[in-house]
């Protein structure tokens, strides 16, 4: 056996660029003075992200590349349409999150309370994103697991990085405990799957599982238990009920841009891994996981929406809304095995639109936080007179999340997943989702209406420190508006990504 | 040695770990229980690898990676526990209740 391995560096260029940027940010922090630091670090991270985005776009136009292949066939890392679709979403989300978090940074040696050290924050966020890029392209259990861990470990620190903030560390500890327990369950599940199939490569697993499934017995039951345990870990990552308990507390305690990052980029990575596992690896067990995913979807949207109804804090409301959206995203994956490609396409399209509108909503929360640090929903009353542009943007994102005009993008997303569910013969799930959409209207519209109640406050002048946040929100708003009038390119990309 | 002995031991270890996670309040003890769960999985992986006589030794390699993952998790975890102790003078997970859904009305008042 040859001891050297040929690596296709072009295929792994997006995560490679991101990791190199992370190291460069840390090194630059060591060698430059405090004045240069503030002007250098964030633009450096942004440049690296844009470079990785360019590499991904280049990969997306060419044929699928794969690397780290076994002699007997099967590759660990495949940069195909599916991988580049997710990588593009994650990297674009990172661009917006970096803009949102710019006012948090502090370049001094002793960081004052409430701020975060810039270099550590940027490097950790880039490292977490490199994990997401690997998860999107990973095609064996080991690559997926390590990718998932690379996503999670820096994220724990990011949540608790704000200096002297007891709620931040509480959020970090809760996030950490839930994550490590679900990772342990996943690894045990992987051990069982390996034990029944003899491989960690997804195509081999699918082949072995289809023969296992034919002869029911102890081995088949063990494999089913392994499949379910592996799904638990991904259920945690996407914050689906009943693995969602960490999400509201973590989002509320974390800096708001980090909450935006977790709710969009981390969720996208979770879905990438989940879809690859279900569609490629565990396909023969579709009769085991199909109904389970359906129940998870129904419970996630119902619990998420019902609890969101009684929230009094903007970030907690958005957190429960992301739990509900995990349900909508899971719904098309519960379809019958023959319709699965259509289902995957629907989930991918929904995720693209969800990323834009949810990042925008969290971005507006960052802007509102400057005026109202408590972020209570009651504080939003009359926001339109104090900060008209923020109120209009927030209204757009909330109606999009609800699926109403003028945020038509959200409506398109809902139509796509409903159609997939009805075509895939899970009409009961579509009915549950329809009821949930109505419940969702109640709380999204309550908040949106509250902002447009006339008040006699004077308008507050925008602060010079938040220009980058405004830029991030503007990008999200532009994408949402474009997807509202012209969603075809995204739908087309989603269907090419699902063709595998 | 028969494969089932190793699997039985691993299942027992995993059970002890799950019990520890559910019953323990101290964050450090919780971390130790998670380590038990991870090592139960490792035992399984290595036992299956030996049983298959896997030419690629995927199970053993996986177990090595899990060891590294566990070490990284403990490193980050202890740092977080230390930060929690500095700011809150406790590491009991059930005493961390500043962020909760208990009473949304009180919640907002306490935020001020």
Please provide the ordered H/E string of secondary-structure elements of chain B. HHHH
Most extensive chain interface and residues per partner: A-B, 51 and 51 residues
**Shape designation of chain A:** globular
Task: Give the CATH architecture of chain B.
Answer: Orthogonal Bundle
Helix content of chain B: over 70%
| Biggest sheet details of chain A | 2 strands, antiparallel
Report the CATH C-level class of chain B. Answer: Mainly Alpha
Average pLDDT rating of chain A: 91
What would you report as the Rg of chain A, rounded to the nearest angstrom?
A: 22 Å
Q: How can the largest sheet of chain B be summarized?
A: none
Can you count the beta strands of chain B?
0
Could you please say which CATH topology of chain B applies here?
Answer: Helix Hairpins
Walkthrough of the structure:
The complex is a heterodimer of chains A (500) and B (112). Chain A is mainly alpha-helical and 500 residues long. Chain A has a domain at 287-500. Helices cover 74% and strands 3% of the residues of chain A. Chain A has 19 helices and 4 strands. Chain A has helices at 13-31, 34-61, 81-101, 118-137, 141-159, 166-197, 202-214, 218-237, 246-253, 256-281, 286-309, 314-330, 340-371, 383-386, 388-402, 408-423, 427-451, 467-485, 488-498, and strands at residues 65-69, 75-79, 105-106, 116-117. In chain A, the strands form 2 sheets. A two-stranded antiparallel sheet of chain A has the order 1-2. In chain A, β1 (65-69) and β2 (75-79) form a beta hairpin. Chain A is globular and about 75 Å long. Chain A starts with 12 loop residues before the first helix and ends with a helix. The model of chain A has no long low-confidence stretch (mean pLDDT 91). With 112 residues, chain B is an all-alpha fold. Chain B has one domain (3-111): Helix Hairpins. Chain B has helices at 3-23, 27-52, 58-88, 104-111. In chain B, α1 packs antiparallel against α2 and α2 (27-52) runs antiparallel to α3. The termini of chain B are far apart. The model of chain B is unreliable at 104-112 (pLDDT under 50). Classes of the chains: A mainly alpha (500), B mainly alpha (112). At the A-B interface, α5, α6 and α9 of A face α1, α2, α3 and α4 of B.
């Amino acid at each position: 056996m040859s001891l050297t391995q040929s690596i296709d560096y072009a295929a792994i260029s997006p995560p490679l660029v991101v990791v190199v940027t992370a190291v460069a940010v840390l090194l630059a922090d060591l060698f430059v003075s405090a004045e240069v630091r503030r002007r250098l670090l964030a633009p450096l991270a942004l440049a690296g992200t844009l470079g990785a985005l360019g590499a991904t776009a280049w990969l997306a136009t060419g044929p699928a590349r794969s690397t780290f292949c076994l002699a007997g066939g099967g590759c660990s890392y495949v940069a195909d349409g599916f991988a580049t679709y997710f990588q593009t979403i994650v990297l674009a989300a990172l661009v917006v999150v970096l803009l949102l978090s710019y006012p948090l940074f502090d370049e001094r040696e002793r960081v004052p309370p409430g701020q975060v050290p810039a270099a550590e924050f940027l490097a950790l966020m880039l490292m977490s994103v490199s994990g997401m890029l690997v998860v999107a392209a990973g095609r064996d259990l080991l690559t997926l697991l390590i990718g998932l861990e690379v996503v999670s470990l820096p994220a724990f620190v990011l949540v608790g990085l704000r200096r002297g903030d007891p709620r931040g560390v509480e959020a970090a500890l809760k996030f950490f405990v839930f994550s490590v327990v679900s990772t342990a369950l996943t690894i045990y599940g992987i051990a069982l799957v390996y034990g029944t199939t003899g491989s960690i490569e997804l195509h081999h697993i699918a082949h072995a599982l289809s023969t296992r499934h034919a002869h029911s017995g102890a081995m088949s039951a063990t494999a089913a238990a392994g499949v379910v345990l592996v799904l638990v870990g991904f259920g945690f990552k996407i914050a689906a009920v009943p693995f969602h308990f960490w999400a509201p507390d973590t989002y509320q305690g974390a800096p708001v841009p980090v909450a935006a990052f977790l709710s969009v980029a981390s969720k996208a990575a979770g879905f990438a891994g989940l879809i690859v596992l279900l569609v490629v690896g565990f396909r023969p067990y579709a009769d085991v996981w199909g109904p389970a995913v359906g129940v998870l979807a129904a419970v996630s949207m119902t619990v998420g929406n019902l609890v969101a109804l009684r929230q009094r804090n903007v970030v907690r409301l958005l957190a429960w809304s992301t739990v509900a959206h995990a349900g909508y995203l899971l719904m098309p994956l519960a379809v019958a095995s023959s319709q699965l490609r259509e289902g995957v396409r629907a989930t991918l399209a929904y995720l693209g639109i969800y990323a834009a509108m949810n990042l925008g909503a969290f971005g507006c929360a960052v802007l509102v936080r400057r005026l109202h640090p408590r972020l209570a929903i009651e504080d939003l009353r009359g926001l339109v007179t104090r900060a008209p542009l923020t109120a209009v943007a927030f209204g757009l994102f909330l109606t999009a999340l609800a699926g109403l005009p003028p945020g038509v993008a959200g409506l398109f997303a809902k139509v796509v997943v409903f159609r997939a569910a009805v075509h895939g013969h899970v009409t009961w799930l579509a009915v549950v989702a329809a009821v949930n959409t109505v419940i969702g209207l109640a709380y999204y519209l309550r908040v949106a209406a509250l902002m447009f109640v006339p008040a006699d406050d004077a308008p507050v002048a925008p602060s010079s420190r938040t220009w980058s946040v405004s830029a991030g929100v503007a990008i999200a708003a532009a994408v949402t508006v474009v997807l509202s009038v012209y969603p075809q390119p995204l739908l087309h990309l989603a269907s090419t990504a699902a063709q595998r | 040695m028969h494969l089932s002995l190793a699997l039985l031991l691993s299942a027992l270890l995993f059970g002890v770990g799950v019990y520890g996670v559910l019953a323990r309040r101290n964050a450090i003890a919780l971390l130790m229980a998670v380590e038990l769960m991870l090592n139960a999985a490792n035992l399984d992986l290595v036992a299956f690898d030996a049983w298959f006589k896997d030419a690629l030794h995927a199970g053993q390699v996986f177990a090595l990676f899990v060891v590294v993952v566990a070490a990284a998790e403990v490193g980050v975890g202890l740092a977080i526990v230390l930060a929690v102790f500095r700011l809150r003078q406790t590491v009991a997970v059930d005493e961390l209740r500043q962020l909760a859904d208990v009473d949304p009305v009180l919640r907002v008042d306490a935020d001020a």
